[in-house]
Design brief:
Blueprint lengths: L17 E14 L2 E8 L2 E7 L5 H7 L7 E10 L14 E12 L15 H6 L1 H4 L3 H23 L3 E2 L17 E3 L7 E3 L5 H9 L4 E9 L11 E10 L3 H19 L9 E4 H8 L13 E2 L1 H4 L5 H8 L3 E7 L7 H13 L6 E6 L2 E3 L8 H11 L6 E7 L1 H18 L11 E5 L4 E4 L4 E4 L12 H5 L10 E6 L2 E8 L4 H10 L4 H15 L6 E7 H9 L29 H6 L11
Parallel strand pairs: 6-9, 11-17
Antiparallel strand pairs: 1-2, 1-4, 2-3, 4-5, 7-8, 9-10, 10-22, 12-13, 13-16, 14-15, 14-16, 17-20, 18-19, 20-21, 21-22
Helix pairs in contact: 4-6, 4-16, 7-12, 10-12, 14-15
Length: about 600
């Protein structure tokens, strides 16, 4: 037996008992020959004290211990001397007086101190097994475990069946780039790693499973950022004979169970709902952070007959004039103004107009074009006060909203406005557009995926091919301005699915080669069905208070998609390539 207790379980009631502990040496302190060691395991710390007068041999042995050596200690539990207790430590009232020390393994020179936050992320990723010993990351892994466990427990209680779907799948156009896996047995052909179990879960509905879930691995070969990895995990849910309200209810119940298990709090349900149009109009984003004010305000009625040329022309062209009031931001610097102007241009604006209110004066080159009634209306509608700074957007609805939405978030960062830590603002965003136009491809794409059904009331628009106006039975769930999941009701009629493929520019022969399995299944009595998928990594990141999903994954890739710990991706033996009938471009003879 390596231990009788873990390093966080011994209390005053154990004083006098003989115990055995095992773990890592967290820190050693030599106080005039008396050696203090904090022994650490995954549960916590216990102080062990080696006194030469009690056991000189053990004290000499303890003197050789260094940080992260692995040791086993047996001894008697004693009370700490008065005045030396540590109220910040669960075991802070006791210490262990050892009678035996066994050094199980020595640690080499450490890549970085275990009690520090390394600034070099590549160094952390190279020694990830060591990085994970740090208490913050160890805690995050346990939070992730509790999220997964409470998810399974709740969905099981609601009659959902966990079903695994294949990892080796078929490459189909679903948005992102696939990871391809060459087949040795069928040379020249490839599997794809699934971007999501989307088609499989729909096929399970055709199979009569009715209520399915899976904590599924997904793979997308795309550019990386703080909340994106090439392989990630999602909570995948699908059910038959459901409406969006049914999906909302089960999702809210599951999230309530997750937050009760991980944060020990009761979250308020049902969640608020906004349509896509409302969310973008008010916040400039389909994943709005509502913990802050500074909503977008429509000024069309004020400037409908205005002599402000840029505003009037935007309105005459069918666009909008909107503004945000950054309260207390009149002290904006030249550098900040330049940065915000560049952001506005990046997202489609020709420039950025703003007004500062300082010492009772409106300061801006555009103020001279405003009439007194326009100024009065602006002051009333935007609640303009001393110290404010008002930013305008005049363009097409989509451009004006996105520009002001991006500015809103950056201004909040510049003002260093932090919401209270315990605000959990859940929101459903509904009624997304079914299509989005791709200027690069000169075609319509599905905003969510090609299996999302149009809203019933918009079917005449769909049939008339008025694609910009067609809404989807699609919904996203947002938490504190982060999209944590999305779903929809699915197309279950083969004729409608074929029309959807046609609208997306997928030819009839390609429909059969890429999606024939799904179309055949839909012709064998597919039930109405729908579902949702939530990003488990993002959800855990928010619950744990982290800024990157890499800090809630055991072995993530870095921002270049590399695993520095195992040095992958890496080269393979040429014989493996020959077995797969592959030749690298650099090896081809010119």
């Amino acid at each position: 037996m390596y231990r009788t207790h873990d390093c966080n379980s011994i209390r005053k009631t154990d004083i006098g008992k003989q115990v055995t502990l095992a773990g890592w040496v967290n820190v050693t302190r030599d106080h005039g020959g008396v050696i203090f060691i904090d022994l650490r395991d995954r549960e916590g710390l216990t102080q062990v004290v080696f006194r030469p007068e009690e056991n000189a041999q053990l004290a000499r042995q303890a003197h050789t211990l260094r940080s992260e050596d692995v040791a086993e200690v047996s001894g008697r539990v004693a009370a700490r001397l008065p005045g030396t207790e540590n109220p910040n430590l669960a075991t802070g009232d006791i210490e262990v007086i050892p009678n035996q020390l066994r050094i199980l393994n020595r640690a080499d020179t450490l890549p970085f101190p275990i009690d520090a936050e390394p600034q070099n992320e590549d160094l952390r990723m190279t020694h990830r097994y060591f990085d994970l010993r740090r208490p913050r990351l160890a805690r995050n892994l346990r939070v992730r475990h509790r999220v997964a466990k409470s998810t399974r427990d709740f969905l099981d209680s609601q009659g959902y069946v966990e079903v695994e779907t294949p990892i080796l799948s078929k490459s189909t156009p679903e948005g992102a780039r696939d990871f391809l896996v060459p087949s040795r047995l069928t040379p020249g052909k490839f599997y794809a790693l699934p971007q999501a179990p989307q088609q499989y879960k729909q096929l399970l509905m055709v199979a009569g499973v009715e209520k399915y879930f899976q904590i599924a691995k997904c793979f997308r070969d795309e550019d990386l950022r703080a909340d994106r990895q090439p392989e990630f995990t999602q909570i995948d849910i699908e059910a038959s004979f459901v409406t969006p309200d049914d999906i909302f209810k089960v999702t809210e119940g599951m999230l309530a169970a997750i937050f009760k298990a991980t944060r020990i709090i009761e979250i308020k349900t049902p969640f608020d709902r906004l349509t896509y149009r409302e969310a973008v109009s008010r916040y400039g984003s389909d994943k709005p952070d509502r913990r802050f004010e500074m909503e977008l305000v429509d000024l069309g009625e004020i400037f409908r007959e205005s002599s402000v040329k840029v505003f009037r022309s935007a309105l005459d062209a069918g666009g909008v004039v909107k503004a945000i009031n950054a309260k207390g931001f009149a002290g904006i610097t030249i550098g900040q103004a330049d940065e915000l102007t560049e952001i506005a241009k990046l997202y489609g604006a020709k420039g950025l107009a703003f007004i500062k209110i300082e010492n009772g004066e409106w300061k801006s080159p555009i103020v001279k074009f405003f009439s007194e009634p326009e100024k009065a209306a602006l002051k009333s509608k935007l609640k303009i006060e001393e110290g404010d700074c008002v930013f305008f957007g005049a363009d097409k609805w989509e451009v004006a909203c996105e520009v002001l939405g991006r500015l809103r978030l950056r201004i909040l960062e510049m003002q260093k406005l932090m919401p209270p830590a315990e605000i959990w603002d859940f929101l459903w965003v509904t009624d997304f557009p079914l299509f989005e136009w791709s200027p690069e491809e000169n075609k319509w794409n599905a905003m969510h995926h090609p299996f999302t059904r149009p809203k019933a009331e918009d079917m005449p628009l769909f049939e008339a091919k008025k694609f910009p106006d067609v809404r989807a039975e699609a919904y996203d769930i947002v938490l504190n301005g982060v999209e944590i999941g999305g779903g929809s009701l699915r197309i279950y009629e083969p004729e409608l699915q074929e029309k959807m493929f046609e609208a997306l520019g997928i030819r009839s022969e390609d429909q059969q080669s890429q999606f024939g399995h799904l179309l055949r299944a839909l012709r064998l009595g597919a039930p109405p069905h729908g579902g949702i998928a939530l990003g488990l990594d993002r959800l855990v990141m928010l619950i744990a208070g982290e800024q990157s999903i890499r800090d809630v994954m055991a072995f993530p890739k870095n921002n270049r998609g590399m695993d520095l710990m195992t040095n992958s991706p890496g080269e393979v033996d040429p014989r493996q390539l020959r077995d797969l009938s592959l030749k690298l471009a650099k090896d081809k003879k010119l």
